Every structure is written in structure tokens, then in C-alpha cells.
Amino acid sequence: MNKFSDTDNPLAPVVSKLITVIVILLIFILALITLFVIFVPAPKQKETKSITVPVPDKYGNFTEAAKEAALKPKDTTNYWLAPDISEIKENKELVEYGKELIAHTSIYFGENGKIFKASTNGMNCQNCHLDAGTKIFGNNYSAVASTYPKFRARSGSIENVYKRVNDCFERSLNGKALDTTSKEMQGIVAYIKWLGKDVKKGDKPLGSGFKDLVFLDRAADPEKGKTVYTEKCQSCHQPDGLGLMNAEKTAFTYPPLWGPHSYNDGAGLYRMSNFAKYVKYNMPLGVTHNNPQLSDEEAWDVAAFVNSQTRPKKDIKKDWPKIEEKPFDHPFGPYADGFNEKQHKYGPYKPIKEKLDAMKKAASAHSATKKSKV
Questions:
Q1: pLDDT tens-place string over residues 55-113
Q2: What is the pLDDT of residues 107-150, one digit of tens each?
Q3: Which residues span the domain enclosing 352?
Q4: Are both 351 and 299 inside the same structural domain?
Q5: Band of residue 220 on the pLDDT scale cut at 50, 70, 90
Q6: pLDDT (0 to 100) of residue 3
Q7: What are the C-alpha distances in Å from 84 to residues 87, 196, 261, 368?
Q8: Do residues 235 and 269 share a domain?
Q9: Whether residue 255 is found in the same domain as residue 352
Q10: Together in a domain, 184 and 216
Q11: Has residue 1 been placed in a domain?
Q12: Which of these, 82, 72, 194, lies nearest to 136 by C-alpha position?
């Protein structure tokens, strides 16, 4: 028998406790491993992402939008291009002054004008002749120098450029005519002639005037036009159509389309076809004739709405001395074609145009017959 028993060993209790702790730890570790296996998901296998390399079409376009754009026919027309004003060699100061007057007419002739106070309605020439008379189909000045002097049926006389400019001052600007010898008139005429310096006499370059717009098969509708105006025009020209002045109150940021400061009823834009063409290919501001936002119907209808609002009146009794030469959309009688004022103003215009063309053809044939008998 051993001399000493286990109970006599002083380390026995310590060893026993250590063994117990180790056993508990082992159980705890096993429990953790079990929980880890049960509740922690296995790691996902790393996905290999495949990269799709875009393949261009035969024109080198990658996006669908670019492909669609590439399929659209390109306008390769050789439109008139305004000359570079930095390359002026003669009368530079006068030409630049003329451009300034066209672009900022109201500063010089508006309510607080530097030259003639309140001699116009406060609009600028370029409100109608966009980009100082240089925008394609924006009522530009490209054909003025090449076609004037010329006979105009509205006055029944030969008109020169000075008369044409003063017509704008008296009608579109609802103001007073300029002295033709004044520096201001000379500057405006110098600028207009400079713009058309490369246009052959008698020619009308492509992009001058307004782009054609097909007739509707119905009358233009002011009520439908009101909806168009509300949705697409009034954010700039304001709900009341009176335009928006700049902070300095020296000019309109957005011109009035009716009311006391708008063009009068003798202006070119008061003719429905001119207004419809103008807005179709130029409005909202920023569009071009190649990317119009208004449909044909919207253009005609908004023209009817705007031109049915109140505006200044002009004495036009002497206009169109030969009534058979009045345009199909001239809104004031009497007429030689048998149609009334309402149809002349709102349409439908096709029957009127056909009647006027037939009358003109008959008159031409009659004149030729008379000459042959002489």
C-alpha cells in the first residue's frame, strides 16, 4: 500500500477543478461549433461576371438613341449663313451700331429709351427677327438687300429698305417712324445690307422668311390654342400674355403677345399664317426648323388664340389698294373672293387660296389676250 493516499495529496482538488473547467470549456466550444454550423450560411461561390462588349452598328453608333438618330435623314440643304461680324471691313462702327439697335431696340426707343423715349411699344426688332435677323427660317434679313426696292401689294407701291424698316417700327413695334437720315436708320440699314452682301441681286436664299406650313382641313381653333398656350407658352410669356420685363425694366425678357405693348393689328404676325409658321419652327425658344416641338395643328391653333386677343389697332385703310391682291389670311374686308372675314382670319384657308389662285390665273390670261389683240 502507498504511503500516501489521494486524499492526502494537496494538489488533487486543484487538478480535479482544472479537469472540470476543461471539460466545461470543451462542451462550450463544441456547442459554439454546432451553432456556427447550423446558423452561419456557407460562403457563396464567387460569381464570375461576364462583360458584354457593346457592338456598334455599321455607322459606328453604340446606343439605340444614336442608332435611331443616324437613321433619320440628314438635312444637307445649303442654307444661307450670316457673315461673321468680326470680319467687317467697311463701316464697321455703323454696322455694329445697327446690330445693337436691332438686338436691343427698347434700350434706345422704349419707355426709357436713350434716344427717343416711348417711341415704340418696348419690344426689340429681334423679337420678330430672331438672333438679330440671322436665324434660319427665323424671319431673317438675308433677302432684304437682294430684293429691295420692290413692289409690295400691301402699299401698292415700290418700297425701299427705309420704308420696310419704318413699317416694322409703325406696325410690329407700334411706334413712330424713324427719320431716314438719322444715324439710327442709317445704322439699321447698313447692318441689314451687310447681312445680305453675299446674296445675288434678285435672289432669295434658302432659309429666308418662314418655312412653309400645310393648311389644316378645318378652321384654326382659339379654344384649342388656349390649351397649347397654357401648356407650352405661358411659362415665358405669362398667363396674361403681357410678357416679362427684365429686372432693370428696360426691356422684355419675354415679349408680350397681346395687350398694349404688343404688335398692332397691321403687323405681319397678325396674319395667321405668318404667326403659325413663326411659332412652329422657332418656339418654344431654342427649337429650330429641323426639330420643332409643336405639331402643325398646335401651331395654327395657338396662332388663332394669340391673334384673337386684344392689341393696339392701326389705321390700315390704305393697305391693299387692290382688294383682289389681299392674302388669303388678311382678316379685314372687303374681299374680291367671296369669302367672309371670319374665314379669312381663322380658315379653312385652302378654298380661299384656290379661289385667289384661279382669279390670278384668269386675270393673267385676260391680260395676255388683250396684249395679243393690240
A1: 666 656 666 665 565 666 778 899 999 999 998 989 999 999 999 999 999 999 999 99
A2: 999 999 999 998 999 999 999 999 999 999 999 999 999 999 99
A3: 212-357
A4: yes
A5: very high
A6: 46
A7: 6, 12, 33, 47
A8: yes
A9: yes
A10: no
A11: no
A12: 82
Q: How many CB atoms lie within 10 A of CB 16?
A: 11
Please state the domain count of the chain.
2
Name all contacts of 160-168 with Cβ < 8 Å and 24+ positions apart. 161/189, 161/192, 161/193, 162/189, 165/189, 165/192, 168/125, 168/128
Cis peptide before 255 (omega within 30 of 0): no
Contact 278, 139 (CB under 8 A): yes
pTM for the structure as a whole: 0.80
Scan for cell 446674296, then name that residue.
199
Is residue 133 domain-shared with residue 262, that is, in the same domain?
Answer: no
Please give the mean pLDDT across all residues of the chain. Answer: 90
In a domain, 202, yes or no: no
- Rounded Cα distance between 314 and 267, Å, is 9
Cis peptide bond upstream of 334, omega within 30: yes
CATH assignment at residue 306? 1.10.760.10
- Residue closest to 214 by CA, chosen among 129, 295, 307: 295
C-alpha cell, 200: 445675288
Query: 288 and 348 share a domain?
Result: yes
